[in-house]
């Protein structure tokens, strides 16, 4: 919950005039060419790494204040992830910046070609509250590596982290090109009125539509990192203990389910459900003890609004009568115990809205293959998980499920693999980032073709003749024989 210091802290009024001034200042910096240089990008990434390394304690305190996030989760899921991402960018920056050779063809012979990654210009990063350090800083790493000026707008729902980011960016980063604007809907609306060269938004689909509509006015490209209901299909030929441990850890051990890639619901067969439920209960007891509301190893719900949103999902009698574990809540501490609901009605809110919290429905089906049909009847999720040992089922799942990512026999871990793109598809998002994909998300891929003055084929110029047409057709078809015929045959 917000401390007295945060409540007292009120960022200076940020209106249209302030936003215009900010953009003007950052454009002036970009126009000097400073942010394009390797040296500037490297120095800013180094500063950023130093900023995180020297502030680990403050970061953990801010995350505890905003979410009661356990220190281990703060370190592993936010601090360590940022450090890895920043170190990778520093290591690979020169490679990423190098133009990429492209092949040419007979139609442009003789020529050479390359793809040059150029910065987009001044970019806006709007981030969400659940991983407020990671989701703010990680896109900024990509924006800097690609040579852009950047404005970060952290989430007002995590005020301690927002305040800390504003302070740290002010102290460590080049403020003529990298700024933090704190604020809520009003400030974000003012920012969105401006013409940016890219908007990178993390959050829910409703606001994503507001962001995209604002971007459309200026033809600004967007990356939209959204969420959805990420399903877990559990077969019966698995290592049950390992499966239950991984699901419990990916659900409640990731910010108490307030993670975009947390398992949203489980699907398993009617026959196997009792064994799986017993094992999930067993693991929950081992992790969080008899009274999980008192456990220090589990985050709280971020705000009273989200607490009300989550308890509303259980208010439906048809759902509450299906609770087989948990259901306890404590409004004063914003805590909800890990809760499992067996077979809630398909038309209930809990089965239709992203849960984003500690509630886990289990849906039972007759045959495991029916799970694929069930998942495909819903919006495309950010992640889809499968636990099985069957090769055929794995293949079927990978080729038939459209999702931002698919993970077999684990949950959430794909986001630690920075050689994989991280992003959604359909309702779960547009675009991707992490590792080199972050650099690409903030770069324009400029096509460059080089030619000399030798070998200027007269066939492309008027007056057009049937012979020239034959030659060009052969050239563009890549037919060596046709070219010989056109040159040495009848004209
Ligand atoms: P949030 O409430 O922090 O909102 C996100 C940002 O949008 C904030 O900076 C906020 O100030 C801004 N915003 C809110 N209303 C706005 C409006 N009307 N106009 C302009 N800006 C506005 O976060 P949230 O939306 O509650 O985040 C949770 C959602 O984000 C979930 O759906 C989750 O799955 C998704 N998410 C996705 C990822 C990912 O990487 N794909 C990561 C985290 C969260």
SSE inventory with pairings:
Layout: H1 4-8, H2 16-31, H3 38-53, H4 56-67, H5 71-97, E1 100-102, E2 111-119, E3 122-126, H6 134-145, E4 149-153, H7 159-172, E5 178-180, H8 185-193, E6 198-202, H9 205-217, E7 222-225, E8 231-234, H10 240-251, E9 265-269, H11 273-288, H12 304-315, H13 317-320, E10 323-325, E11 329-330, E12 335-336, E13 339-342, E14 359-365, H14 370-376, E15 383-387, H15 391-400, E16 405-408, E17 422-423, E18 429-430, E19 432-433, H16 436-441, E20 443-451, H17 466-477, H18 480-488
Helix pairs in contact: 3-5, 4-5, 4-7, 5-6, 10-11, 17-18
The structure holds nicotinamide-adenine-dinucleotide (NAD).
The site of nicotinamide-adenine-dinucleotide (NAD) has 28 residues, from helix 8 and helix 9.
Q: Quick recap of the structure?
A:
With 491 residues, the protein is α/β, with parallel strands linked by helices. It is built from 18 helices and 20 strands.
Q: Widest sheet: strand order?
A: 10-13-14-9-8-15-16
Radius of gyration: 27 Å
Judged by helices, strands and strand pairing, the structural class is alpha/beta
> What is the CATH third-level topology name of the largest domain?
Aldehyde Dehydrogenase, Chain A, domain 1
Low-confidence stretches: 1-10
Number of helices: 18
**How much strand content do the residues show?**
15-25%
Report the average pLDDT across residues. 95
- Ligands bound here? nicotinamide-adenine-dinucleotide
**Biggest sheet, in brief?**
7 strands, mixed
Gross CATH architecture of the largest domain? 3-Layer(aba) Sandwich
Shape assignment: globular
Q: Got a strand count?
A: 20
Oligomer: single chain
Calculate the terminal CA-CA distance, rounded to whole Å: 84 Å
